[in-house]
Specification:
The protein is mainly β. The chain has one domain: PCu(A)C copper chaperone (Immunoglobulin-like, Sandwich). It is 5% helix and 47% strand. It is built from one helix and eleven strands, in the order αβββββββββββ. The chain is globular, with a radius of gyration of 15 Å.
Length: 148
């Protein structure tokens, strides 16, 4: 299982050979009950000279994906809000991690710990980038952003 986690969690994906966007280290937590809301995390690197925006995400297990961001900086507890896009500045890596930008997934088919799902990320300029996301269960030691 460690090998599967290493391979799935580190699979990089690009829209095309000329795309400047790469997505890596993706994982999704098993929800507390089937069909319940869960979260997804990943790293998005923009190796280009122009910024881009993540506009939407779909999954291979259906459901609805919302882009989420903190409502205010340096406030506790962290209050999240849905945003229309996530800016990916040129020459940077944006991490979708707990208490920051992340994916909120609702209504997906059952997720199985240790299996992969596909995330399709739609960008304003780079088009669609797909990446494998490892399904992890935080109750048995998986699902930590320390996997990244």
């Amino acid at each position: 299982m460690i090998t599967a986690a290493a391979v799935a969690g580190c699979t990089a994906a690009r829209a095309s050979a000329t795309s400047s966007i790469a997505a890596t280290a993706a994982y999704v937590q098993v929800p507390s009950s089937a069909g319940a809301t869960t979260v997804g995390y990943l790293d998005i690197r923009n190796n280009g000279s122009a910024s881009d925006e993540l506009l939407s995400v779909t999954t291979s297990v259906g459901g609805t994906v919302q882009l989420r961001a903190p409502d205010s900086a340096n406030v506790s507890p962290v209050v999240m809000r849905t945003v229309p896009d996530i800016d990916i500045p040129a020459g940077t890596m944006v991490q979708l991690v707990p208490n920051s930008y992340h994916l909120l997934i609702t209504g997906a088919k059952p997720l199985v710990d240790g299996k992969d799902i596909t995330l399709s990320l739609k960008f304003a300029h780079a088009g669609t980038v797909t990446v494998l996301a490892l399904v992890t269960n935080p109750n048995n030691g998986g699902g930590s952003y320390f996997l990244n």
